[in-house]
Amino acid sequence: MARRRESKALAAEQEQSLVTARENYFMAAVHWAAAQWPIDENNDLNRFYNGRKRECYTKYAQLADHRVEAAWIPLPGGASLPAWFHLPPGYTGGRIPAVVSIPGMDSFKEIGVAMYGDRWLSRGLAVLAIDGPGQYESPVLDIYFSMEAWAATGTAAVEWLSKRPEIDGARIGVAGNSFGSFFGTIAAAHEPRLRAIAVSAVCHEPGFHTIFEEASPTFKMRFMYMSGISDEAKFDELRKTMTWEGHAELIHSPYLCVAGEHEELSPLIHTERLLTALKGPKRFVVYQDSRHSVGNVPSANVGPFPPILIADWMAATLQGKTFASEKWYVEANGRIVKSAL
Q1: CB–CB of 62/26 below 8 Å?
Q2: Beta-carbon neighbour count of residue 44 at 10 Å?
Q3: How far is CA 268 from the centre of its chain?
Q4: What are 133-166's pLDDT values in tens digits?
Q5: What is the crossing angle of helices 147-162 and 179-189, to 10°?
Q6: Looking at residue 47, what is its pLDDT?
Q7: Is residue 98 a contact partner of residue 193, using CB atoms and an 8 Å limit?
């Protein structure tokens, strides 16, 4: 499928059908990235797929309807995280807010910004879409997961964005989905200049027993690769050190958390404990009947659509809007039941 899309893109480009070429380069990059998912080692095939992904996305960026640039975010020690920097369509100047987009364990930065009608860009926010330590392209570059690396990632991203003339350094937020909900929390805990934190599809269980010991074994296999560890016993020792405890207590910025009522990969009691530890305002939105991937249930279809709720909250918060700490329970009929948090 990736090759087919890339061939269509090349043919369209040769015919000067540049919109068609744009769309097919984007889809080719997504398919090349998806092909990397089952490969849990840095072999030639993984590197080849990664190279094709970057090549196709670079060609998409050259044809996109908005400005897209490759970015490299320096970490302490000399490594640099791979990222893509996006400016809203029609951007003509001035300093604008930005969001750092962090994918989940099974996702990648190239899909973090929609080809058209992106929720962040449409609201006037720039986006820095990253593969953080251990995520997708980063382990191909020998940048593996560690708590220390993620504690440094928020500062690294803010430093990079603050040097851009397009970005208002006082209005930078971070959004993390799935395992990105944990990564984003750790990053924000050590960077107070991240003025808004939005997480969804939560992974907040200290030690991560449920996802690594009771769910699909692919999760554990993937994260072992992300950590650069091939010995399961050694990984089990590492995962016991993976926790927001001692970190979340440092967060004073507004925090939005969106979760499914029947979250199966991380018991919600741990998210509730995390929210209690936060020092700033927080909003906890729970969708009736939803599981880990928040959506595809009546509450998300009839009530606020989760990705849009998050984007609206981020845009408003970075504009300085304040809110009370509340829990929102979105019922199947779309009604929101609010209570103090």
Answers
A1: no
A2: 7
A3: 20
A4: 999 999 999 999 999 999 999 999 999 999 999 9
A5: 70
A6: 97
A7: no
Neighbours of 15 (CB within 10 A): 10
| 3-state class (DSSP) for residue 246 | coil
The whole-angstrom separation of Cα 286 and Cα 262 is: 9
- Distance in angstroms (rounded) separating the CA atoms of residues 96 and 101: 16
Residue-wise pLDDT tens digits, 87-97: 999 999 999 99
Rounded percentage of the chain residues whose pLDDT exceeds 70:
100
Distance separating alpha carbons of residues 250 and 338, to the nearest angstrom: 26
Q: How far is CA 29 from the centre of its chain?
A: 18
Domains of the chain (ranges; CATH) run: 1-64 (1.20.58), 66-340 (3.40.50.1820)
The Cβ of residue 79 has, within 10 Å, a number of other Cβ atoms equal to 17
**Which tokens sit at 301?**
């279809």
